[in-house]
Amino acid sequence: MHIPDGVIGATTAAGFGAVAAGGFGIAARRTREHLSDRHIPLAALTAAFVFAAQMVNFPVIAGMSGHLLGGVLAAVLVGPAAGFVVLTVVLIVQSLVFADGGLTALGLNIVNMGLIGAVGGYGLFRVVLAATPRRFRSIPFAAAVAAFLAVPAAAMGFVGEFAIGGTADVSLGAVLTAMLGTHVLIGIGEGVITGFVVAGVVASRRDLVLGVPEQVAARGA
């Protein structure tokens, strides 16, 4: 899903870059307010896992690739604000060090994978969780479903951006079909991985999982 330079026009890329920068500023401030010292090691481990997961790429169309996002996983474990920060840092490092995603498209990638994938995915997680029994076993299930849905949602973010300022000689219908079809499949894998990882953390250190609502934590089951 990393967007390279030139696929989206400069004006559109700059606009989404501004959105990404503003979102990062808000997320960083909220992370400082809500992330305690005991959660910092988990945030670091989450960033390392997401970084490694995103290095496994699947070809989509010429010049485009898809991969596991890790947005919902990060948001459930350390909160949506910190999850957005984690995804942003990962994307910056990948762009600067590994040339995975263009510099001019960095804002686009942050919006798709950080804002839509992590923050939007966390919203999906809370919606699914609200429809399930108030118990700890519901958390991995809700995380898995949200992770599955967040991947094609982030892919649709790119389709919207391409519709606004795409420069490649590819029809919007072809882009939509390729992105949605591929990322639904990727979403299945991401949902399974997210569910298992969240289940493992909840089973061992549920007190560190910021995605656990207070009413669920109070039940203790």
Summary tags:
221 residues, mainly alpha, Arp2/3 complex 21 kDa subunit ARPC3, 8 helices
The CA-CA distance between the termini, in Å, is: 38 Å
Low-confidence stretches: none
Text of the CATH class: Mainly Alpha
Kindly give the count of domains.
Answer: 1
Task: Record the strand order, biggest sheet.
Answer: 1-2
What string gives the helices and strands in order? HHEEHHHHHH
Total beta-strand segments:
2
Descriptive notes:
The chain has 221 residues and is mainly α. It has one domain: Arp2/3 complex 21 kDa subunit ARPC3 (Orthogonal Bundle), CATH 1.10.1760.20. Helix content is 72%, strand content 3%. It has helices spanning 10-34, 40-54, 71-78, 80-98, 106-130, 138-165, 172-205, 214-219, and strands spanning 57-59, 65-67. A two-stranded antiparallel ribbon has the order 1-2. A hairpin with a 5-residue loop joins strand 1 and strand 2 (65-67).
Task: Compose a concise summary of this entry.
The chain is an all-alpha fold and 221 residues long. It is built from eight helices and two strands; from the N terminus they run H-H-E-E-H-H-H-H-H-H.
List the helices and strands and how they pair.
Layout lengths: L9 H25 L5 H15 L2 E3 L5 E3 L3 H8 L1 H19 L7 H25 L7 H28 L6 H34 L8 H6 L2
Antiparallel strand pairs: 1-2
Helix pairs in contact: 1-4, 1-5, 2-3, 2-4, 3-4, 3-5, 3-6, 3-7, 4-5, 5-6, 6-7
